[in-house]
Amino acid sequence: MRHKILGKIGNTEAIIPAEGESQLLWKQAGQLTFRDSAALALPHTPRILPWYVRMLGDREKGVAAGWRRDDIAVAGITIDRDTAAIELAAATSERLAATALWQASTTAEDDIARGLLESATAVYALERILCRGTWFAANGRMPPRVAQRVRRDLHHHREHLGAHLSELVAGFDIDLDVFDAPMAAPDYLRWWQEWARWSSTPAATGIALVSDQAKP
C-alpha cells in the first residue's frame, strides 16, 4: 500500500510542474495574441462565418480590448494580467478551431461530409459558448433568445452527428480490427460480457432486475 501511495505522490509532483509549464505557454501565447491579433487568421478564411463562430470571435475581441485598456475583469474571473492573457489565448484557440472546422466544410465536395463538418463546427462552437455562458451573459451577449437558440441548435447538431457515427469513424480510415475494445467490436455489450466474464450482458441483467421488481 505504501508503494502505491508513493507512486501517486510522484505522479502528483510530476503533474504540478507540467501544469505550470502549460500555463506559462498559455500566458506567452495570450501576450503575443494581444500584440498582433490580426496575424492569427487562417489562410482562405471564408468571408461569411456562422453566428456561433462569430460569437467566439466577439469574445476574443472583447477580452483583447479589455487587456489593452488594463481592464482584466473583462476576461472573466481573473486575478492579474497573466491570467487574463491565458483567457485571451484560450479564446483565440477556440475561435481558430471553430473557423478551421467551418473552412473544411466549405471545401468538402461530398454532401454528407459537408453536413457532418458543419454539424461538427456547430457542436464545438456551441459547446464552448455554453461553457463560457457566464461571460456572454455578463457582457450582454447572451439574452434569453440567444440562449434558447444555443440550446436548440446544439441539440439538433448533436443528434445529426450521433446518427452518422459510423461515417465519422470511417472518415478517419482506422482499422478497428486491430483494437481489442468495445468500440471495435460488432456487439459492444457482448465484448463487455466476455471481458468481465459476466453470465449475461449488463443490459439483460438490468432488464431482468426491473421486471422482477415490477412483479406483484
3D structure, described in words:
The longest helix is centred in the N-terminal third of the chain and has 34 residues, at 2-35. The radius of gyration is 23 Å and the shape is globular. The protein has 216 residues and is mainly α. It folds into 2 domains: 2-174, Butyryl-CoA Dehydrogenase, subunit A, domain 3; 179-216, no CATH class. It has helices at residues 2-35, 51-68, 81-107, 111-131, 133-138, 144-162, 165-171, 188-196, 202-214. GO terms for molecular function: oxidoreductase activity, acting on the CH-CH group of donors.
Question: What distance lies between the first and last C-alpha atoms, to the nearest angstrom?
Answer: 48 Å
CATH superfamily of the largest domain, please? Butyryl-CoA Dehydrogenase, subunit A, domain 3
Helix content: over 70%
Instruction: Let me know the average pLDDT.
Output: 80
Poorly predicted parts:
8-20, 207-211
What fold name stands as the CATH topology of the largest domain? Butyryl-CoA Dehydrogenase, subunit A, domain 3
Order of helices and strands: HHHHHHHHH
Protein structure class: mainly alpha
